[in-house]
């Protein structure tokens, strides 16, 4: 979903640490750029979305002004991932961490969104659409399979870091890969 | 009565025929890319209506497989895949009924989309998205292949080109009840 034309996204600083003690990768960073990594297991791209961009997307799906205001008040980061290797890669959002230099940033969960939508009585159809645009909480990504969707955070002024751990193997028993994106920023 | 050499010849031919048969059916090991074998659980019901107001076919469809495809117009892979499903539907002698289910969009949106992408297909409308939730596709788009007994046999990850020979071969050789 919401794919963008291919570009080379390598301006953000990111690092990858593997449990297998493979090298640490890093790049110079500029805020508000998208970033992409490619390793021997998968490609992973994160893109910060502007509030108006997200609002317009959901307005096009019929979301009313109140729902769009809730959306504009949050930070949306689109994640696009493809398993480019030969073994299963486990996407598990419980293994993702977000933090500024000093503070952790709690991810806004599906349950929190559900409570918000129920409070403003968002129609079930729109709740379903919104749910399908979020990144799945968990997915055993098969070789050549891709997945995409949004992660949502509270509005954050400062640049922040995204750290994600991916287990490998059919039974999560073939090691793990840690990926780090630094200097990510919520778009204004 | 056969001698040893003719028996070997016979067994050799039988083995060759068996190998060819397995290679030519969807039950063989070499599935097309993106096709996942499921455990054969019963397919959930489809309490839906088409965009024209007709009731959905009830599963299982006697003697036929069902191609149950979930999609939404806002998803880019869905937009690419839908025209290829129409091409698949135009193949003569398909052993499968094609069912396309829109997830949680309104009739105007679906009508406008299908008029361009696949004008010959009549979509089912999952207006509140709850049927899609029960089927639990891995994402949009996704396709389930339901056998003539109503069992979920395959999940096909989104973004396939159903007009490609590997997928046409796969679909057209799905085993019917008398072949299993």
How many separate structural domains of chain A?
Answer: 1
Q: Under the CATH scheme, which class of the largest domain in chain B?
A: Alpha Beta
Shape of chain A: globular
| SSE sequence of chain B, one letter per element | HEEEHEHEHEEH
CATH topology of the largest domain in chain B: Glutaredoxin
Strand share of the residues of chain B? 15-25%
Mean pLDDT of chain B: 86
Number of alpha- plus pi-helical segments of chain A: 4
Q: Give the full name of the CATH homologous superfamily of the largest domain in chain B.
A: Glutaredoxin
Global Rg of chain A? 17 Å
Low-confidence stretches of chain B: 1-28
Question: What do these coordinates show?
Answer:
The complex is a heterodimer of chains A (188) and B (180). Chain A is α+β, with helices and mostly antiparallel strands. Chain A has one domain (13-184): Immunoglobulin-like, CATH 2.60.40. Helix content of chain A is 20%, strand content 36%. Chain A contains four helices and ten strands; from the N terminus they run E-E-E-H-H-E-E-E-H-H-E-E-E-E. In chain A, strands 1, 5, 6, 7, 9 and 10 form a six-stranded antiparallel sheet that branches. In chain A, strands 2-3-4-8 form a four-stranded antiparallel sheet. The longest helix of chain A has 10 residues, at 51-60. The radius of gyration of chain A is 17 Å and the shape is globular. Chain B is an alpha/beta fold. Chain B has two domains: 1-29; 31-179, Glutaredoxin (3-Layer(aba) Sandwich), CATH 3.40.30.10. Chain B contains five helices and seven strands, in the order αβββαβαβαββα. Chain B has helices at 4-23, 76-89, 107-117, 130-135, 165-172, and strands at residues 35-37, 49-50, 65-71, 96-103, 124-126, 142-146, 152-157. Chain B has a seven-stranded mixed sheet with strand order 1-7-6-3-4-5-2. In chain B, helix 3 links the parallel strand 4 (96-103) and strand 5 (124-126). Residues 1-28 of chain B have low confidence and may be disordered. Chains A and B meet through helix 4 and strand 8 of A and helix 4 of B.
């Amino acid at each position: 979903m919401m794919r963008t034309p291919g570009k080379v996204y390598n301006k953000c600083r990111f690092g990858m640490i593997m449990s297998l003690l493979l090298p640490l990768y890093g790049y110079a960073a500029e805020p508000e750029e998208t970033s992409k990594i490619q390793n021997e297991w998968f490609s992973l791209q994160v893109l910060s979305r502007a509030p108006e961009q997200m609002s317009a997307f959901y307005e096009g799906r019929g979301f009313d002004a109140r729902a769009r205001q809730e959306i504009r008040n949050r930070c949306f980061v689109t994640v696009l991932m493809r398993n480019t290797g030969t073994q299963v890669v486990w996407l598990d959002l419980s293994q993702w961490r977000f933090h500024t230099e000093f503070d952790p940033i709690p991810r806004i969960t599906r349950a929190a969104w559900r409570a918000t939508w129920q409070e403003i009585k968002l129609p079930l159809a729109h709740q379903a659409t919104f749910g399908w645009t979020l990144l799945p909480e968990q997915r055993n990504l098969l070789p050549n399979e891709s997945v995409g969707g949004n992660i949502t955070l509270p509005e954050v002024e400062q640049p922040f870091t995204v750290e994600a751990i991916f287990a490998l193997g059919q039974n999560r028993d073939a090691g793990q890969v840690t990926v780090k994106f630094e200097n990510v920023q919520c778009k204004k | 009565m056969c001698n040893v050499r003719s028996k070997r010849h016979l067994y050799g031919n039988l083995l060759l025929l068996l190998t060819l048969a397995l290679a030519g059916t969807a039950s063989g090991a070499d599935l097309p890319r993106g096709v996942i074998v499921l455990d054969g659980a019963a397919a959930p019901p489809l309490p839906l209506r088409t965009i024209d107001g007709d009731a959905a076919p009830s599963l299982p469809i006697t003697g036929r497989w069902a191609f149950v495809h979930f999609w939404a117009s806002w998803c880019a892979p869905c937009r690419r895949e839908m025209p290829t499903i129409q091409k698949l539907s135009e193949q003569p002698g398909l052993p499968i009924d094609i069912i396309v289910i829109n997830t949680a969009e309104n009739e105007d949106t679906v009508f406008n989309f299908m008029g361009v992408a696949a004008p010959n297909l009549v979509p089912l409308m999952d207006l509140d998205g709850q049927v899609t939730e029960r089927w639990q596709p891995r994402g949009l788009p996704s396709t389930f292949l339901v056998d003539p007994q109503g069992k979920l046999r395959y999940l096909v990850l989104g973004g396939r080109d159903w007009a490609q020979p590997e997928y046409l071969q796969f679909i057209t050789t799905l085993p019917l009840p008398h072949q299993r």
